[in-house]
Amino acid sequence: MEQFTASAPESEAVTIKTFAPGARLIHQGDTISYVYIIREGITKCYLEEDNGKDYIFEFLGKGEITGELEGIKKEKCLCNIEAITSVTAYAIPHRLFAWLLVNNTTFNRLLLEELAVRIRQTCIRTSYQQLYPVEYTLLRLLALEAAQDIVIPKKDMAAYLGITIRSFNRTLKELRAKNILDPQGLNIGLSRKQLEEILRRFEEM
Amino acid sequence: MEQFTASAPESEAVTIKTFAPGARLIHQGDTISYVYIIREGITKCYLEEDNGKDYIFEFLGKGEITGELEGIKKEKCLCNIEAITSVTAYAIPHRLFAWLLVNNTTFNRLLLEELAVRIRQTCIRTSYQQLYPVEYTLLRLLALEAAQDIVIPKKDMAAYLGITIRSFNRTLKELRAKNILDPQGLNIGLSRKQLEEILRRFEEM
DNA sequence: TATAAAACGGGACATTTGTCCTCCTTTTCA
DNA sequence: TGAAAAGGAGGACAAATGTCCCGTTTTATA
User: Fold this and answer.
1) Can you give the pTM of this predicted structure?
2) By the number of CB atoms within 10 A of the CB, which of A69, A156, B27, B89 ranks highest?
């Protein structure tokens, strides 16, 4: 972080903020004045619809940025960012963010790439969530969870997959019946190779 | 367009390309060397999954950019861009695109805002597609189509909504039975006010 | 214009997902 | 420690969506 702010106007300092699990970094609809970069912990980025249901777009972890859309265009916050684990984050004042964007080529470049990556990932994910059965998308999520060594509550996983907890549990049970998951837990009871083989099978039919 | 390229190295010229309906501006998986800005016409941006199904993310029209993700990060094309109507587009060579990004603050800014808007819209759309019934999402799509005065083939609308044509037709029939759609066509047989009232009702329950 | 081919719409049934409710476990607090 | 409350799992049924197929309409072509 320091590499970027060294040459910035001194008045606008980057601070570090801490959030307990369940606390919100950003409230949907608010006008905020910081862009955050996660230093430690996991957050969920979700939209609350008028019918009370939530949809989680993504889980943001170390090094990921949030509030940048609102930093680029002065609009109200699109979604909620809530700490799942305990979270610390760099809080970059809007004016500094805008300054960096214009004056620091490296920062500008990093942000562009971050946005590009995010669009790519979102596209890929929404596509397979629409076109493949839940068993497949659930497996991919569990694999991701295991790979990143994080723990996501069941209800959040369901909200991420866009299904109810009932459906989520049902699918877990089916995967257990097929010996793809551990009998009790949420762990994948297969080697990396076996898992890939199973995912591939889904993709082909 | 000319405003940006005036000061650029001469060797890299922007050209205008024409595409007949059904022609592809970009092939998924290819390595391309142009970024396109649509000058006229409508395209669909879609991903073909290994199981043969398509998912359409968005319809791109006048003024919208494509191939920019691949221009920012040197990766293979994420998705297909196919002309629905007859299309003309500015073709910007990659090197010129990269040059503009670094040397033209206005261009850089425009691109950032475009990406930000796109992420916002994608988030909003995926969310309501996951959380509201098909009747609602279909109505929103038809309203969009009418507002922009464009015609999108049924199969493309279904692919955009992530449902089969069978479901699409079924939903149309239901909307007609409720006198929300014209008896034969795809037109919304209601005033703007009435439509908003109906959408609102969906959003509340 | 006649005929074959392709595209379209919708019926019938299968599968998937959601809703509601009940039972059981875990937590909380007096 | 015991009772009440809260949370989680899953059965039973309802609703939504997909698959398969057939009959009709439209398009293409000789």
Assistant:
1) 0.91
2) B89
